[in-house]
Amino acid sequence: GEDVEQSLFLSVREGDSSVINCTYTDSSSTYLYWYKQEPGAGLQLLTYIFSNMDMKQDQRLTVLLNKKDKHLSLRIADTQTGDSAIYFCAEGVRNSGYALNFGKGTSLLVTP
Amino acid sequence: DAGVIQSPRHEVTEMGQEVTLRCKPISGHNSLFWYRQTMMRGLELLIYFNNNVPIDDSGMPEDRFSAKMPNASFSTLKIQPSEPRDSAVYFCASTPRPGPDTEAFFGQGTRLTVV
User: Fold this and answer.
1) Contacts of B90 (CB under 8 A, 6+ apart)
2) What is the percent of chain A where pLDDT is above 90?
3) In angstroms, what is the C-alpha Rg of chain A?
4) Phi and psi angles of residue B105, each rounded to the nearest 5 degrees, phi first
5) Per-residue confidence (pLDDT) for residue B44, from 0 to 100
6) Residue numbers in A near B69 (CB within 8 A)
7) Beta bridge partners of A22
């Protein structure tokens, strides 16, 4: 599919906020997702946002959606070393049973 | 539930050999997806099944790749003959039903190395 774009790396200090940005391709996407992948593991759904929402908050996670610019961001408050992982932005592809079209992932490194 | 189970976790094989990757979806899930993850291309959808029927296989790279789902609790992805460029992590995922509001549950993946 077309590219979902993410920056590849982000490094933050423990306790700071992390912001991971993503641009997606399909303006008709109804749901947009953030998945987390820890080393040697599969992907785990962190959160998702419905396209008629601008913001969704879930504990330390805040998702912002700008439909006009097709821009999605994930903010992690009070980032911990356990948050170090790869974060994938994804959109559902309607014609494939809403299979996920993923970005290449952002590697988040949290330093003490 | 134990989640999506993939086997083997690691596979090393010689070029030209046949490789079979296995997946057991979560019980009751009707949709199953195979993805491939590489550094260069990220995560790519290979094939999608709904109710054991292949719906979209447009992501299968070549005829060397084939996938089956003989029943609701088992799927295989076969590569014959394998080539070094097939080296990747292969993920299986399942969802309760097709649709944008369902969570995809991923297995741990099979890391394939073709030498």
Assistant:
1) B6, B21, B34, B35, B36, B37, B46, B77, B109, B110, B112
2) 63
3) 13
4) -105, 125
5) 92
6) none
7) A6, A72
Preceding peptide of B8 cis, ω within 30° = yes
Q: For residue range B59-73, list pLDDT tens digits in order.
A: 998 899 999 999 999
Q: What is chain A's mean pLDDT, rounded?
A: 90
Chain A residues within 8 A of B45 when measuring between CB atoms: 1, 93, 96, 99-101
| Beta carbons of A96 and B48 less than 8 Å apart | yes
A97·B50 Cβ contact <8 A: yes
- Taking Cα atoms as reference points, which of A24, A5, A100 lies closest to residue A65? A24
Mean pLDDT, residues B43-59: 92
Q: Give the one of A1, A29, A31 whose C-beta lies nearest to B101's C-beta.
A: A31
Does B72 contact A at CB distance below 8 Å? Answer: no
Of residues B82 and A39, more confidence is placed in B82
Most distant CA atoms of chain A, gap in Å: 44
